[in-house]
């Protein structure tokens, strides 16, 4: 029997609840499809930071490198640890260390879910650059606390980094409706974003079967609301992709539905799977977090590991549950009820 070694980082707040829910469903899928998931749980979180002064141990990356995949719930507890510390201490280092350069975020209305737009054709795939750009971490502060204080945050766009994410986007578009929209702000940002546009045009030559549009981020926000049915695959930088995918999440009914995968295409390196949402301190511990985003991310992990049938069955079970109206409206069903409905659907599918 094939065994996959998973590193679980439940994190903070609702990250713990949705990780539990996901593992219940994935374990059931593994039993049904004849493979084994062997998980080690790592308590790296804001609580861990308070005890140890770091978000993860110094050998954290080396430890994770031995796993087939990483599953993360959500990290952040701004009351006790600044978000810039928790994000830069755990999430971003993992994405960068394992060159998980493609952050894949599917936005689609699940059956039975009514998004705010009342459209039935919402199905886009956002590919967000995940290792550089605006979140490169380059910059600094000088003269802190003085009136001549300076802060810089340098966006870093490399040819290698931009080329590979654009190419990844084209591959995805080729497997879908064959339309790619590259999102920049190249009217205002005349170096990095003009460079991104140039690279997109170069890479596009290799994909004559895919049509390409170029849009500015502000116009794209309007387009996603006004004419989402005209979009297929969107490729965007780290910051723009981050923002657009919360908009995508809202259109698909809320953050509780938005799944994501941080992919390094090299199979020797672990990729990381996590819902788009954060630790949701406002609803933590109340058993009302929607686990669907997390479970869908788990299905993406099974798919990445090569368990395509199990991945499809998990997604079909999620769809069966939402079709029955379970988990479609925030607060209507508990985390446990939604998980139970998905497990029941998985058994009969
Ligand atoms: P958030 O995503 O945690 O919450 C935003 C809003 O969406 C809240 O009202 C929350 O209740 C709701 N929400 C989120 N997930 C939900 C779910 N599964 N079911 C029902 N409602 C849900 O974003 P926020 O409040 O900006 O950040 C809270 C903390 O999470 C911060 O520390 C932030 O840095 C961190 N964060 C971590 C992320 C990660 O680990 N990947 C991503 C985003 C934020
Ligand atoms: Mg975000």
Considering the chains and any ligands shown, give keywords for the structure.
alpha/beta, 12 strands, 41% helix, binds 1,4-dihydronicotinamide adenine dinucleotide, binds magnesium ion
Number of helices: 11
CATH class of one domain: Alpha Beta
- What is the spatial order of strands in the main beta sheet? 2-1-3-12-11-4-5-10-8-9
What letter string, H or E per element, gives the SSE order? EHEHHEHEEEEHEHEHEHEEHHH
Question: What ligands does this structure carry?
Answer: 1,4-dihydronicotinamide adenine dinucleotide, magnesium ion
Percent of residues in beta strands? 15-25%
Q: Percentage of helical residues? A: 40-55%
Kindly report how far apart the N and C termini lie: 22 Å
Q: Average pLDDT value? A: 96
**Strand count:** 12
CATH superfamily of one domain: Isopropylmalate Dehydrogenase
Enumerate the spans where pLDDT stays under 50 for 5 or more consecutive residues: none
Tell me the major beta sheet.
10 strands, mixed
Integer-rounded radius of gyration? 20 Å
Shape: globular
Second rung of CATH, namely the architecture of one domain: 3-Layer(aba) Sandwich
- Category from helices, strands and their pairing: alpha/beta
CATH structural fold name of one domain = Isopropylmalate Dehydrogenase
